[in-house]
Amino acid sequence: MKAEIIAVGTELLLGEILDTNSQYLSQQMSGLGIDLYYISHIGDNHTRLTNAVLQALDRSDLLIMTGGLGPTEDDLTREAIAAALGETMEVQADLENHLRTWYFRRNRPMPERNIKQATLIPSATTIPNPIGTAPGWWVETNGKYIATMPGVPVEMRKMWEEQILPKLQIIAGTGVIATRTLKTVGLGESAAEEVVQPLIRSTNPTLATYAKNDGVHLRMGAKAESRDVAEKLIDDFEVEVRELIGDWVYGYEDETLSAVVGKLMKDAGLTVGTMESCTGGLLASYFTDAAGSSAYFKGSLITYTPVLKMQYGVPPETIEKYGVVSEECARAMASAVRLALGTDVGISTTGVAGPDALEDKRPGTCFVAMDFQGEVSVESAVWSTTRMEVKRRAVMDGLNMLWQGLKARAKAS
Length: 413
Ligand code: ATP
Ligand code: MG
Known about the structure:
Blueprint: E1 2-8, H1 10-13, H2 20-32, E2 35-42, H3 46-59, E3 62-66, H4 77-85, E4 90-91, H5 93-105, E5 119-120, E6 124-127, E7 136-141, E8 144-149, H6 153-172, E9 176-184, H7 189-195, H8 197-200, E10 206-212, E11 215-224, H9 227-245, E12 249-252, H10 257-268, E13 272-276, H11 282-289, E14 297-302, H12 306-311, H13 316-322, H14 327-341, E15 345-351, E16 365-372, E17 375-382, H15 387-412
Parallel strand pairs: 1-2, 1-3, 3-8, 13-14, 13-15
Antiparallel strand pairs: 4-5, 6-7, 7-8, 9-11, 9-12, 10-11, 15-16, 16-17
The site of magnesium ion has 3 residues, from loops.
């Protein structure tokens, strides 16, 4: 079954609102195993909307529309469908009654132009809207389907879940698509894709990589006649994916690296503190995003100036000789904070977040070091990106170093 979505509203075209309705609906369609081929944004214009409906009926089996069901003159979804099908909208007594009661119960007079919300065309049946005044239309014409829903996201979702989804599950009957996301850290997107290359061409299940804020995501998808079978396909596929890239996989879907690291810290009974320069406390912020982090996260020294770095234990000679944006300074900071806070692990960040250079170091130059019970390691990078992104990447590097350290420790024991 080929489907498309039309999100109606000039606001969408002006960039005033984001089309979260289509985002939600497209995820739902893929869960139903319906092939979604087009998403369009059409403004509140009768001709363009009518043409869009005609085009959709020509190329798709199912058209889902959101928005434009309100009572005002620029709400034209019903009118466009009626025009496209050459049918006439007629007020339905039962719908009118329902609408008037809705206003009566709220002690408000019904504006007469609202009456159009009580209309239907011969090909349409009504889809009740329990939380708003605009009912949707369910249209069946020449083996094609149209569903209209209000633009207001809560109304749309409720109507979808309770009334349209069950209809489509019966009509589609084509099976379901199950998806699962594995999150990795420590590899760039092209490197990650290279590692899983043998599986990228697989057609069912499928595998795709996405570079995200918290690492590269690997999205697996499988299509089957039932959810159980699709999930089983993914279970087996995940084993193959992990054989290739398992060392970098830290979690599923909503899991965060700070929570994963936090759990390992707790299990190991270790503590950590940070000395941060270029990340300005962001690493500490990430650590404390995880519930229960007080069990292992002791604190952070935000030492933005050389003087403060020295005050908390970085040897002046190190700064004099190598500068603050250096591997040596990063190492010294990691060890200094471990000592100052009395933790098992110290992590430090120092660098030039940009946009200007510092100590002749290019903006985006970063050093992240870790002192893990006396064993010091350091990583460096030059990222040509925004200030915020440099800070975030340095933080992910720090968390990744700790994660790798914890895994190595667990393996050794
Ligand atoms: P109303 O009765 O409120 O006029 P409607 O069905 O006519 O409802 P619109 O007028 O198109 O819907 O949109 C109403 C509001 O719903 C918009 O102002 C916007 O906040 C939200 N909305 C509309 N379309 C979308 C969309 N595609 N994604 C997210 N929000 C939307
Ligand atoms: Mg409206």
